[in-house]
Each structure stands twice: as structure tokens, then as C-alpha cells.
Amino acid sequence: MTELTSQLPAHFVFSQSSLQDYADCPRRFQLRYMDHLIYPAAESEPALENERHQLEGQHFHRLAQQYLLGIPTEKLARLANTPNLGRWWENFVNFSDLTGLRNLSGLYPEVTLSAPLGDSRLIAKYDLIAFTEDDKVIIYDWKTYRKRPRNEWLSARWQTRVYRALLVAAGSQINGGKPIVPERCEMVYWFANYPDDPARFPYSESQYNRDWDVLVKLTEEIRSASSHPQTDDRQMCAYCTYRSYCDRGIQAGNLDALEAEMEAESLFDVNFEQIGEIEF
Ligand code: SF4
User: Fold this and answer.
1) How confident is the model over 177-182, as a mean pLDDT?
2) CA 240, 241, 245: angle at the middle one, nearest 5?
3) From CA 237, how far away is CA 62, in angstroms rounded?
4) Does the pLDDT at position 218 exceed 70?
5) Which residue of 56, 58, 79, 198 could cross-link 190, Cys pair, CB 3.0 to 4.6 Å?
6) How far apart are the CA of 50 and the centre of ligand 1, in A?
């Protein structure tokens, strides 16, 4: 068995995914970020179908980025060459928010922001940050979920809180040094399978202050934690790569069996930390 070190690296940089892992299961955080344990169990069944869906999601994100960088639509459309990709692409280019976006000077696809956070550092990679002509700053995140999650659930996700807070804390880096006003910020999740029903989350100074305070306290707690208990929510384990290591079952959970609880799918969210280069 792998020898575990259980040390958080001194210069560990927190992200929404590591914070979400800690919130979902402190043991998973320990195994993944402190022990660097690689345990290649399938996260869900049917494995091949879900793997294909994840790859298509990654490919779609790359197409969206290329579109926003100004690559001709016709050229990109040819690369949306599976039924899912073709449908997502069609929905994407017809998304009303995108009209005119490509002409904005303040458009930042696949941008990374980071800022000090107490004794730590926080980083986020955004699908798109857009500075609009009416002086708003909008974070866009593309989701290829099969089902649309509830807004209440999205609102509580660390991604929603980290992305907005970090935009306010560090967005001046891409705003000519000018601070970002929370009330001018919004985060939009756009769902490739539900193109007419994006989830929009505005922001405020009080939300920002609260979020940043919680982030500082949480990262201090994580740094000083002396134990990392397993989650009591065994549903988390059914889709966790460490389940046999933790003695929480061998068989991967079946996503179809959990259709009523769509949020399970988000455990395999596409994020830029996982996306390699795709040739065009
Ligand atoms: S299998 Fe369960 S207890 Fe173990 S790390 Fe994963 S979520 Fe946590």
C-alpha cells in the first residue's frame, strides 16, 4: 500500500475544486491533496459512456474558447462532430448573451485569477469573464450536464462563491488596475442542454465580505486540521475514486439510477485544470 505523508504542501494553492472536496469529504481532501494518492477506480457506471460524455464536455469547452477568440464559426462547426457536440454547439452559437460578445474588447476566455487568502493563496480558472458595454462584469461558466441542477444547489457550491469573490479580489488585474465593484458582477451558468434556462447569480458588497471571511476561516481550518474524517454521506462514496481504498464499496454508482438527483453528475464537472490542448 502507498505510504501516506498527510502533509499539506506549504505553498498549497486553494481552488474551488479542492474546497469543494473538503466540504464533501475531508478524507477525500486528505487523500487527494495531502497524500497525493492516485486510485484509478471508475467514478461512475456505465464507465465508457460517462467517459465519452466528459471528453465531449472538454471538447465543447475548447470549441467555446476558440469561438470567443474569433476563430470562424464555420470552421468550428465542422469540429462539433458528434450528436451531443452538434446540439451543444448549435445551442451555444444561438445563446442570446453571446450576441455582440465577440466584439467586446474586454473579453477574457479561459482566464486565471489568483489572490492571497490569509496565509494561503486562492486560484480560479474561468471559462469566460466579460466586461460589457454597460459596465457590468459577467462570469460565464459552460455546463454540459445532462440535467439542469437547482439554483439553490448551485448557489451553495464553492464554485459560485469562489468565482465571484475572487473576481472582486483580483479582477483589477484584467481591468486596467481599476477595482471591481461587487454590485456590477454576475455569475452565469449556461447549460448546453438547457440553453434557454441559464442560472444567474448577482453579487453584492455584503456577500463578498461574508464570502471572503468564510474563505479565510475555512482555509485556516483546513491548514490546521489534525484529522480528516470520512463523510457520513455514503452517496458521495458511490462516485468517489477512493471508495475501495476507504472500504466504502467496490462498484461505481450508476448515474442513470440517480436521475432524480442530478447533482451527482457534477462530481465529474469539466474544469480547466483537467483540459488538455485540443488541436485545431
Ligand atoms: S470513498 Fe467516501 S469516505 Fe472515502 S474519500 Fe471518497 S467520499 Fe470520502
Assistant:
1) 96
2) 105
3) 30
4) yes
5) 198
6) 20
Which of 248, 251, 267 is the best mutation target for the ligand 1 pocket, counting ligand atoms within 8 Å of the beta carbon and taking the most? 248
Looking at the whole model, is its pTM more than 0.85?
yes
Residue nearest to atom 3 of ligand 1 (CA): 230
Tell whether ligand 1 has an atom less than 6 A from the beta carbon of residue 98: no
The predicted structure's pLDDT at residue 187: 98
pLDDT 10s digits, 93-140: 999 888 777 777 789 999 999 999 988 999 999 999 999 988 899 999
Residue 137, beta-bridge partner list: 131, 185
Average pLDDT of the chain, as a whole number: 86
Cα–ligand 1 centroid distance for 16 (angstroms): 18
226-258: per-residue pLDDT in tens? 999 999 998 888 888 898 889 887 766 666 555
Q: What pLDDT score does 273 carry?
A: 43
How far does the centroid of ligand 1 lie from the alpha carbon of residue 186, in Å? 33
| Beta bridge mates, 180 | none
Closest ligand 1 atom, residue 236 Cα: 7
